[in-house]
Amino acid sequence: MRAAVTKAPGVVEVSSVADPSTPGPGEVTLRPELVGVCGSDLHLFDGHLPVSPKRGGSPYPVIQGHEICAVVEALGEATAPTGLSIGDRVAVWPLTSCGSCYPCRVGRASVCDAFQLLGVHVDGGLAEQLVVAADHVFRIGDLSASLGAFVEPMAVAVHAAERGRVDAGEAVVVLGGGAIGQASLLAAKARGARVLVSEPVAARRDWALALGADEVADPAAGDLVGRARAFAGGGVSVVVDTTGAPAALRSGIEMVASAGRVVVVGISGDEAPVPLGRFTEKEFDLLGSSCHERGDVEAAVDVVRAAAATLGGTLGPEYALEDAAEAFAFAGAHPERATKVLVRVTG
Known about the structure:
The structure is a single chain. By secondary structure, this protein is an alpha/beta fold. The chain is built from twelve helices and 18 strands. The strands form four sheets. Strands 3, 5, 6, 9, 10, 17 and 18 form a seven-stranded mixed beta sheet that branches.
């Protein structure tokens, strides 16, 4: 089969690789259709992903891709309880956990000490076939392939909203208007919140308004904290930082209400000095949010379906598998022109 293999930082080659094995009990063979490119893909592509590489050494070579929409091609034994059939279009939960470490024992598989993520720790979706556990795929019915690929980033946002305990009527500020920022907007709106999105790129502010943001703000225009607090009528109930930028985190701590929540989703290797006195003064919760749980993916399918009419026409651009390297490069270089870069693998 063909696959786009990241051989080294900045080096992607499309070549023939061995077909996966026949699906075993409880497994399915998938034919990936579209795969989204996200920030962590770009960090792995350029050699700066701040996570432990697979096998304790170099993460390369690796077939990237964890935002996957695929079609079921074959079923292993004991998949009947999943209700899957050959030909089903599905989204994929790309994370597996050990089930025995402390996070797993307390129901937090998304931060399993030994978790593996498709496309990072093990080969992912930029290949013509992929074998995964049947309980890691979710039928999406008549949703388009591009919307199916957006289920995984939506699950990241659903998990963040759950971590932040976003509730109906609360004021939420999302810092960053990339794909995870826009997904966080939709996840918060789905829970009945009012949402302001802060984003310096005008096209992304327009995208947020099209998806239902109550307000948008340009952080470069000055006094973002004042703008956010005015939007909330005081302190902000929940701040979701999707940027990973130290300055954004500091702004979030300043704008959050006493007893509010700041949720950090953005991946970064930066260090962020913060005013420690604000913790005792405001008694706010500072929360990390990593990946997602199985239930988050199920919920994400529903959020994507509810937003399909507006979201579906906004995703792109799309590249062929042969142009995967160009897709990574474009996504990193042109945030103002990319909403969700997609790579078509088959179909």
